Amino acid sequence: MGKLKLTKKEEEKLEKLISTLELKGIRIKKAIYESYLSLEEITPPMIAELEEEAKYENKKNVDEHIKRNYILLVNYRFHFAARDQSEQKIFEIDAIYEAKYASDIKLTDKIFEIFKNVEVKFHLWPYFREFLVDATVRMGFPPPRLPLFRVKYGITPKNNQN
């Protein structure tokens, strides 16, 4: 997928969203890992694939303690699978995290496409990396080397105080 083009108005909306955003919590909703082969049964090298999927929901804020108009719930799914050279599945790891944000801006689908790859993934990637390493070691495999988080597309808010 190429870079998503935003209009000037959408860029301003994204900038305001990021500059007024408050992270209210992160929780893991689902975590499953399963091993199909032992380390001794695999034919090196180990080939890994990572898939990601994100969904969001805007809710009108009803909590008087939160001084923002909207609550944004984002479910972010990471699916990591490893197979060996002979295409046998070695293990799978699936985790769904929920990030809860408070904001004055209501998300749109177009702005969410950028928001999920910048802010949301930035907040959740360390949690998934830790879970992946822990699960892999518990299954008897060496921990995979995951890349650092890289921003695919971003706008730096002018007035962001964080």
Task: Walk me through what this model shows.
With 162 residues, the protein is an alpha+beta fold. The chain has one domain: Bacterial Protein-export protein SecB. The chain is built from two helices and four strands. It has a four-stranded antiparallel β-sheet with strand order 1-4-3-2. A hairpin with a 5-residue loop joins strand 3 (70-83) and strand 4. The longest helix has 30 residues, at 109-138. 19% of the residues are buried.
> What's the mean pLDDT score?
87
Number of strands: 4
Low-confidence stretches: 153-162
- Tell me which oligomeric state these chains represent: single chain
| Outline type | elongated
Q: In percent, how much strand structure appears in the residues? A: 35-45%
Specify the structural class.
Answer: alpha+beta
Question: And the CATH topology?
Answer: Bacterial Protein-export protein SecB
Major sheet: 4 strands, antiparallel
Name the CATH architecture. Answer: Roll
Tally of domains: 1
The amount of helix comes to 25-40%
Which value, in Å, is the CA radius of gyration?
A: 19 Å
Distance between the termini: 30 Å
Corresponding CATH superfamily: SecB-like
- CATH class placement: Alpha Beta
The topology string of helices and strands comes to HEEEEH
Strand order of the largest sheet: 1-4-3-2
Treating each run of at least 4 consecutive H or I residues as one helix, how many helices? 2
